[in-house]
Amino acid sequence: MVEVRLDGWLRQFGPRGRERVEADSVAAVIDALEARYPRLRFKLRDETGTLRRYVRVFVDGADVSATTGTRTALDGVRTIDILHSIAGG
Amino acid sequence: MKRDSRLRVLLGTRKGTYVVEGNRRRRSWQVGPVAHVGSEVYHVVADPRHPGDLYAAVNSSFWGPMLQRSRNWGKTWKEIATPLTPARKDREPAFDDREAAKRPLLNLWHVEPGLASDPSTLFLGADPHLLFRSPDLGASWEPIDAINRHPARDQWSPGAGGACLHTILIDPRDARRMYIGLSAVGTFRTEDGGRSWTPTNRGVLAPFLPDKHPETGQCVHHVAADAADPDTFYRQDHAGMYVSHDRMESWKRIGRPLGDDFGFCVASPPSAPGRAYFVRLDGMARVTGEGHFQVYEWNDRTRSWRRLVRAGAFPGHFGVHREGIATDRLDPAGIYVGTTTGQLFISPDAGRSWQLVPYTFPGIHSVSVADPTSG
User: Which candidate from B79, B100, B104 shows the least CB-CB separation from A39?
Assistant: First the structure.
């Protein structure tokens, strides 16, 4: 079981901030969240499965957004943070 | 409840949706509901078939494109279905779909309600060069494959604003006849409800291509239909201002007397057939080159131009985007112009007088009008 901590901005799409999810990859975590909160679909990933530009995923504190991304395996992982990056103007 | 004597100006801006409320006199204005704060909103439009219904093309840099609807003149909004890439008719991710993988939906550009005789139909134009139809007011979307899978689309190029499908016009006499505008591809017409499309760019210059008069490749910025003559259209192209009197079979350039006839927007009001309003911009700077706000009126009957704003009345260099001008349905026509620096200029009398709404909005992408439904 992985604890997923969600950015406050994501609350507009459903999740309250922390979720516990049974999953073996980041993609499976997002699948599970989307199943619980349908309005979250396509907010973190576009329809090709690619993480959106300003979404950052940290696995036990390590940013995997630009490396293994949603394919990241979660063996032994305890926490995932899903944040939006500081951007805009 | 939804019948209302107020006239509303709907603004899509760089930072949200604004509803500006006035009345038939069009002399005083109040900024009403604000929504989608922080998101780019490329287009907001009222559905005249269902008073109170508004649609907003919201493009969040964080969460992607979202189509939103209000059923109470903008007081509250709700996300409705957003179509996906051409291959998809449902909302299931298609991670193994090679077509989809090449082209995720980027931005929503234009929402067009169907005719009054077709009260549940909506059309949506999007980037990259996508056209969708909804048969149920946005509960679901069908791709128009003759455009979305057009055999030549691999040769279609984006304009500076992206591969946007930004103009959708429906012939009021026959909904099977429609016209679309794509950057930087040009205009097309269908006579069969979207099953086939014919390029309609004859006479429009493409100075940025080796072939200056290609079948497609022109960078159309916006097109407006003449309310009294559905076969007449006014076109602001990258390469000038044009008119067509034959369902876009051919175009004649009308902007040459103005010198630099660059611009992005054009509108034609129902109460003034044969008139079209353009905001001429400096082709390099992309702002009003005269050093003040100005709107040009084309009179298609006398084939002449007229400046509508007293020189120097509103000094500055103003940009106006492709959806940045609108007219209402009243007589005399109201003209509404939103600028990229957040000014909203309004004429309540077909251009004889102008006022600047005393409010600075975020940069304005789109302006449209919800006319009074009573009173």
Answer: B79
pLDDT in tens, chain A (89 residues): 999 999 888 888 988 889 999 999 999 999 999 999 999 999 999 888 889 999 999 999 999 999 999 999 999 999 999 998 877 67
Angle at B367 between CA B293 and CA B282, to 5 degrees: 35
Residue B278: inside a domain, yes or no? yes
**Would the CB atoms of A52 and B105 count as touching at under 8 Å?**
no
For residue B2, tell me if it sits in a domain: no
Residue B175's domain spans which residues?
7-88+103-370
Q: Where are the alpha helices (DSSP H) in B223-324?
A: none
Per the prediction, chain B carries an average pLDDT of 93
Interchain pair A47, B93: CB under 8 A: yes
Question: How many structural domains comprise chain B?
Answer: 1
pLDDT at B99: 53
Q: Would residue B114 count as lying in a domain?
A: yes
pLDDT at B102: 59
Residue B30 is classified by DSSP as: E
Sheet containing strand B364-370, edge to edge, reads B30-35, B16-22, B7-13, B364-370
Of B61, B95, B97, which has the smallest distance from its Cβ to A88's Cβ? B61
| The one-letter amino acid at B188 | F
Query: Domains of chain A by range and CATH?
Result: 2-84 (3.10.20.30)
* Predicted-complex ipTM score: 0.86
Could you tell me which chain A residue has the CA closest to the CA of B59? A43
Which chain B residue shows the shortest CA-CA distance from A35?
A: B92
Chain B residue set in contact with A, beta carbons under 8 Å: 38, 61-64, 79, 82, 84-85, 88, 91, 93-95, 97, 100-101, 104-105
Segment B325-348, tens digit of pLDDT = 999 999 999 999 999 999 999 999
Provide the CATH number for the domain around residue B346.
Answer: 2.130.10.10
Predicted local distance difference test score (pLDDT) of residue B100: 47
Q: Is residue B250 part of a domain?
A: yes
Nearest Cα neighbor of B229 from B286, B168, B274, B164 is B274
Please answer whether residues B204 and B252 qualify as being in contact, where contact means their C-beta atoms are separated by less than 8 angstroms. Answer: no
